[in-house]
Amino acid sequence: MDQLAAASGVSRAMISKIERGESSPTAVLLGRLSAALELSVSELLSGTRLGGGMESTAAEPATAEPLPADATGAGRVRRATDTPQWRDPDTGYLRRQISTAGFPVAVTEVTLPPHARVPYPAAAYAFIAQLVWVLSGQLTLTDGSVRRVLAPGDTFELGQPRPREFANETAQECRYVVVVARKSTA
Length: 186
Fold this sequence. Notes:
By secondary structure, this protein is an alpha+beta fold. The chain has a single domain, classed as Jelly Rolls, CATH 2.60.120.10. The protein contains 4 helices and 10 strands, in the order ααααββββββββββ. α1 (2-8) crosses α3. It is globular, with a radius of gyration of 17 Å.
């Protein structure tokens, strides 16, 4: 725990409170912890490494419907009511984990409330490739020192790791999809 605290800049006491369920982490804290653990935020929240390798802490939904016996693939329908979600207690930022454990990429729908800002450290991007696709509203993405304003239908593939901030500078909520793939470590 001391190593994680030192690497993340999050106090040992706060990490302990989060582990015990006594405190809900903010998006900023999740970003710091995910960077220190070399996990995407999706991996950190689900307990599952992209492409396998960690055990999932999330229970499979009771309403999963199998495909016919001759079908291949994951073979389930996950209802919207069974989709895991997490809300940042500070900003109201909402993450819905669209993809399931074992899928080769993490697909997350994000709803960013009006005037919310969510910064992430550069280290959070060192081991992942990420694409952002705006569905509705307007997303202001600060990528290092470059500020980009994205409108519905716009996409942005994040490049080299640098500090980033996702912001909604409008009075309407912004919805976007984040697709994350783990970069090869070889």
